[in-house]
Structures are given as C-alpha cells and as structure tokens.
Amino acid sequence: MVKVRAARPAEAEALTGLVMRSKAHWGYDAAFLAACAAELRIRPDEVTARRIVVAEDPEGAVLGLASLEGGAPQATLGLLFVEPSAIGQGVGRILYRDVLRRAVQQGVRRLVIDSDPHAAGFYRAMGAVAAPTASAPPAGLPGALVRFEAAPAPLADWARAWTGGGRAVHVGNVAEFNAQFGDSSLDAEQSAAHHYSCLAAFYSPYPSVLVLPRAVPAGWTELVCRQLGWTGVEVYDGLVERGPGLVEAVRARPALAARLTGAGEPLVPWGLTRPFGLLAGRPWRAGELRYESKAAAHGLFGRILAEGGHPGIVLPAQVRAAGRWAAARLLAARARAGESTVLKSEHGVGGSGTTVVTAGQVRAAGGARALLRRLPRGPLLVEEFVDGPATLDAPRNLTSDGFGSPSGRVHEVGAALMDVTAGAYRGATVGPGAVPDRAEKPLLAFGAAVGRELAASGYRGWFDVDFVVDAEGRLAPTETNLRLTGPSIAFMVAARLDALRGSGHLVRIADRVELGARLPEAQLDELCADLARGCAELGAVFVPAIPTGAFDPAPWLGVLVAARSLETLDAAEELVRSEAAAVGAMFDAFEPADRPPDPARRAGERP
After folding, report:
1. Residue 138: other Cβ atoms inside 10 A
2. What SS3 string covers 280-303?
3. What percentage of the chain carries pLDDT values higher than 90?
4. Distance CA 404, CA 393 (A)
C-alpha cells in the first residue's frame, strides 16, 4: 500500500531527479528540459517551506511527490510529479487528494494548479476546474501550462454529526424495514428490497464495513472504493438471499456480530427495526416509527400548519376510507366532479401503494368499484390531487432531508429535486441549484419543523418530507419517510466528493438504467469501468449504485453521476443510459453462461 509522508531535506537532490524524469516522460527534448531545470530544482532549504510530501511503496521506494505552497485563503499546488514507472498506478491520485486534505486543514479555500498540458486530463478527472488564465511559458510553445483551480472543502457539518466524524458500519436491512409494515406492493420475498440494499455502500460518506443480504460482484465494490477514495472497506455479503432476515442472519453468526459491534464504530441501518435494535444495543421503541404512516404524517402536517409560520405551504385534503366501498363512493364522487384523486395505502416504498386516478380512468374502468378491485388490498386513504405547474420544466416533486441525533438535536441536510414518473420514484438530484431558491427556503423550514416534532415524539435517525408543487408554485407536503432514501444517498455522495475533490458537486441518483441484456459479471465490470472513464472525460463522476439488478431477467443498474453543472450532469446521465443500452445490445443474442455472484457464499470478506 502506498503511503504519504513528509519529504526530508536530504532527499532534495533525489527528488529533483524524479521531477526531471517525470517531465521527460512526456517527450520533451533536451533543450526544453534544460530550460526548465532551474525552475524545477528542489533545494534542501525549500523542502519544508514548500510543504513537500512524498508517496512511497511498502519497501520505502519514493514513487512521487507533491507540494502545497502559500497560505490561506489561497495556495498553490506547486509540484505534483510521479516516477515514470509508477504513472497510471494511482500514485498521482493519492498525492492530489493528500494536498486537498492538507489545504482544508490549513484553511485554504482556493487552490491554484498550473498543469503541464499532458496532465490536464488528470486534473480534470480529479475535479479541478479550468481557469481562464494560463501560466508561462507562453501559449503555443512546448510545455505551455494549463491553469486549473480547486475549492478545498471540509466534510459538511451535518455529515460529521451523522457518524460523529468517523467511519461507520452500514447494514443493508431494506427488506427487514419494509417487512415490518407489510408493504403489499412488494413480493413476499422482498426481492426488490434486496437490490436496493446495495445502497448500503452509501449510508454515510465513508464506510468501514458493508453488510449486504445478496452476494455482490467484487468488481463493483472495487470501483466504488476507487471512485470515492475509500480504503480498507470490509464487505460481508450473501448472508440471506431470500426473506427479510439480514440482521437475524448476522446475529446467528456470533463472530460476525462481534466484529460489527466491537470496533466502537456507529452502526447505520436503512431504517430502525426490532432486530437491528437488538444487534446495536439500542432500545426498540416501535412508536418511534408512527409517522411512517401516511395518515399520521398528514395529521402531523396539519398540526404544524395550524400553528402558522409557513406561508406558501398548503395541505391536500385527505380522508381515511372506512372500507373499500366507502373509498369507492368517495372516488366516484370526485370523478363525477371531474377531479383526479390520489389513492394511498397506509405505507409504501418508492411510490408503491400510491395511485393517481383521473376521472377518465374511473369511467374507462367501468366505475370506481371496478377500478379499486385492481389495486392492492388493504385500507385506503383518499387524497385530493394537487395540480402541478403549467410548464413541464418547472419543478414538481421535491424533498427535504434531515436527521435527529441521539441527543434529539435536528440537523438540516438539504433539499432535493425528485424524478417521479407515473407516481413512482425514479431518482433525485441534490446540490447547488438543483432546487429553485424560491422553493428551497420554505421547504427546508417546514422540513425542520417536522424534524422537531419527530424528535419530540422520540424518533432518532434520518427522515425526509416529500412535497409536490402546485399550479401556483406552493408546496404541498405528502408524506414522511423515517429511514434513509434515494435522495439521502445522493447527499452522502455529494458530501464525500466535496471533501475529496473540492466543493460544489451536484449528484444525481438514477434508480433504473436499463440494460439491453443480462451481462456476465466480467462484462458488467468492464461496462462500469468504461462509464467511469467516459464520465471523467466530461468532467463528471460515475459511481455504480445498484449492480445486482443487472442479473435480473429484465436487467438494469442503479447509478450515481456527479458534476459541477446541471449541463454536465445531464450529459453524463445521457452517456450512461445510451452506453448501457448499447453494450447490453451486444449480448442480446446470447444467454450468459455467467450467473449472478454465487449465493452459496456466506459472510465472505473482501478488502
């Protein structure tokens, strides 16, 4: 493993030699190198003053060096050179990230980088942004420098508070959380939930351990770790292929349970459950989750709005039907008035259990009773449908995320723009400009008020409040989720990338990117590596989020893309979708000989 240490004055001559070899690697002639020699020379008395560090291999051989020069608020990456034999092995990435880390510690908020033109692609891929000016020698001559800038940023305050500033153990108990509410829209084996358990990789900005029900491809975890700068992540997967009993499977393995609970790191689940409480030594209070109920959440919203102080927030009318025939009568009455209706089950996931019904659909179905026969059984809430903005590009579905700490303090995380199609959640975008300013302030204020009520009721953990925007631009809260969510995953990744690459990342999570055919595991790894390279060329970051869907009969991937502008973000998503479909089509004529990762493997550990 490569490690970084402070350079020593006695190494100055050897380091100068490394710099000149690295410069010569790009094919410059002897005359040009001679002209650069004085500027690139490192003197013994400069080693400490220029804050030079070196990367070395386990045998102590120096592989590269970097310097952080100047002070807050602006500094310069004066040197970053890698031994030619080590180029392409990740040494430059390690050194660059170390420079950003040290810059944050020293209060630097603007880092200037004058790059050799051959290294411009590297800095772009590392998240640096091209600046309008360039350094000498003049443009057009060999070695004309390209200027970049980065904005070093500490980990967001909320992210530090979420895990106490350290790493965490992530427990992918999605199916277990869903099962306690008897969600009728998911099958009894919760197969869909096991796919979404892969999001356990992103339950905090930097995990130490992932605990997953299904076996996942080794290449997936390796790429995710590389893209997000993680090291030393342990993976325990294949613990339960069917059913919701992930935590019970962990508790049935005393050595594994002791490993997860004995290191003093926080355990982070998708959501609170009785088995998780037993594993984590956390008192189980079922009442904490009372506002997962859509009816209870609606009542909570009404009480908050009755107290005043939230202009621009409106609450859709909602009635709990006494039975199916009562629901049919309410639906029929609304249809006769030409009104659309939202039918909701008490609980649901990702839009499941929520159906929007127009008056025309009621007539086409042969009446309200006939239509209701097609919906999942169980109690129904009949809710007023909120008409959306007239323009298609106006935001429609928004969410506010936050969490309550063990002390009961509520932390605001942020607002997200959700992609909801035909009532089903498809993804979300977070980051600067994702939510219009006019909506963000009232949305966050109302979300904070909900968070305070949740904390007062005893709930501790992540929550969000979902909203729709009406025709007048007002916000209508629709439900709370007392668990992690797709938008929360995007917030975690944005916090990590800001700390790793500089501030200002927009992150989009897309739940389903369709593949043209099932891919063998090796080809899936190759596709994801190609997408990572392609997005890097655009100035974006690609992270595969849900790989196991690729092995379904109708294959798909969940993905994350990140960039510093909406235009680049859109381009990266389009690249991912088009290349995923095109590569899948190459295998359409074949029945893959590969199978999904071996479900017989249990509690396998990978670094």
Report:
1. 9
2. HCCCCCHHHHHHHCHHHHHHHHHH
3. 78
4. 33
